[in-house]
């Protein structure tokens, strides 16, 4: 049986922390920035930890063996 591959688009969008949580970039910073206040833009910097309810769906694509 062949090896299972990691989903390519998932590995570009998500990452795992050392404790196994899923890290993702925040949405809402690609376009239409003129509508947002400077505070909204500042708050969208960096990454966030995904909610526990959504983690299994992403981990299924990132860890095909686990």
From TrEMBL:
Residue ranges of the region described as Disordered: 1-30
GO terms for cellular component: ribosome
InterPro entries named among the record's database cross-references: Ribosomal_bL35, Ribosomal_bL35-like, Ribosomal_bL35_CS, Ribosomal_bL35_sf
Annotated SUPFAM superfamilies: L35p-like
Pfam families in the cross-refs: Ribosomal_L35p
UniProt keyword terms in alphabetical order: Ribonucleoprotein, Ribosomal protein
Family to which the UniProt record says this protein belongs: Belongs to the bacterial ribosomal protein bL35 family.
HAMAP family: Ribosomal_bL35
The protein, known as: Large ribosomal subunit protein bL35
Source organism of the structure: Marinibaculum pumilum
Gene name in the database record: rpmI
């Amino acid at each position: 049986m062949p090896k299972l591959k990691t989903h390519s688009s998932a590995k570009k969008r998500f990452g795992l922390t050392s404790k196994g949580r899923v890290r993702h970039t925040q949405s809402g910073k690609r376009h239409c920035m003129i509508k947002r206040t400077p505070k909204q833009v500042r708050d969208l910097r960096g990454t966030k930890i995904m909610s526990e309810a959504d983690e299994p769906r992403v981990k299924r694509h990132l860890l095909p063996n686990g």
